[in-house]
């Protein structure tokens, strides 16, 4: 799944990319369509770069996740991982469908509450929760705090005593299992900063149960992101199941196992993770424990739901070398290729361009960094200045990781839902880039 990896099979063609994404199709007159809405129409009115998200696709994928758990006979609560895409429209849509939220900051807590998600349907994860964030969460009666360390446990107990409250907690256990994913998004190895060492968890759980203001409910784990095989899940859940049996044998009560998230999607042509297989892994390892289960999906539901529209600024020819296709989107918009060497499908919006013979092309942005590269030697039609391109599968860790590097305003965002589209964030005005900056009076100019 990385652009610097040498793949041994050809890149999927435009037709193959579309065939595996039923929410996209190429209309012979209107061009690339998302849920029956012409993306060229959105680009004409909103401009590019522009994020576009399918509400119908997001809704359908979350429903499939829920159905998979139900079909496996699992009593599983679903908390959407807000970090994947935290837009209020996304959170409001999921609140309407009855899903909770998995948060990792006070800002995400505020967003979830703003979207109408009740505090008791919110789970607070994260390795470095501040005292202020914990006080707010505990004061609101948040549903569950996933505790990452012995030190954090003591802090929470002191806060509950000060507030006269009780906090429901799980211990996030690091099972030391290799998720077989990118090194920057694996979280379940002993070398990672996340969670409590497995060998320390039983003793710390007994200690948690003795602390004032603490209701020790169970255990949680999360081993990484973009996981395509259930084998790492089964290995991690088997260790958690053993831990549950151990602490119960010592007289402790365990009511909850939070299974985390991380199910992967198909960016290129790899088989995506299957919710049904995940449910099977959970049932096989945890199904007989008589606990309430939870999962925290993020990338899987929202990643394929989004794309980034861009326009070709110029096609920079280089003789016999592959040309540079310079887009108006950049690494400040979509960071994943620069940060993770991530592979994203590229599809022309024009039905004419989509049928042209493909040639090796380097696709880059205008930012002054060599890392501002979306693809190298990608097989694409020879697109010219003004042509439009969709960068696929950017609904997760796309807009939410954007910045204004090089003083580039944040791109517009659009939601396509139930046959219509809505601007859910206008393009950031240029003067908004400095509206919160203050210049000392002795440096201020006269303009």
Automatic annotation (TrEMBL):
Q: Which GO terms describe its biological process?
A: lysine biosynthetic process via diaminopimelate
Active-site residues, Swiss-Prot/TrEMBL:
368 (proton donor)
Q: Which class of enzymes does this protein belong to?
A: lyase
The cofactors named for this UniProt entry are: pyridoxal 5'-phosphate
Q: What is this protein called?
A: Diaminopimelate decarboxylase
One molecular function GO term is: pyridoxal phosphate binding
Q: Determine if Lyase is one of this entry's keywords.
A: yes
**Which residues are recorded as binding substrate?**
299, 336, 340, 369, 397
Role, per record = Specifically catalyzes the decarboxylation of meso-diaminopimelate (meso-DAP) to L-lysine.
Q: Look up the domain of life of the source.
A: Bacteria
The entry's family comment says:
Belongs to the Orn/Lys/Arg decarboxylase class-II family. LysA subfamily.
Pfam families for the chain: Orn_Arg_deC_N
From which source organism is this entry?
Acetobacter orleanensis
Entry keywords, A to Z: Amino-acid biosynthesis, Decarboxylase, Lyase, Lysine biosynthesis, Pyridoxal phosphate
Q: Reaction(s) catalyzed by this protein?
A: meso-2,6-diaminopimelate + H(+) = L-lysine + CO2
Q: Which NCBIfam families match?
A: lysA (TIGR01048)
For the keyword Lyase, the answer is yes
EC numbers for this chain:
4.1.1.20
Q: Which CDD domains match?
A: PLPDE_III_DapDC
Q: Which pathway does it take part in?
A: Amino-acid biosynthesis; L-lysine biosynthesis via DAP pathway; L-lysine from DL-2,6-diaminopimelate: step 1/1
Q: Which residues form the Orn/DAP/Arg decarboxylase 2 N-terminal domain?
A: 57-301
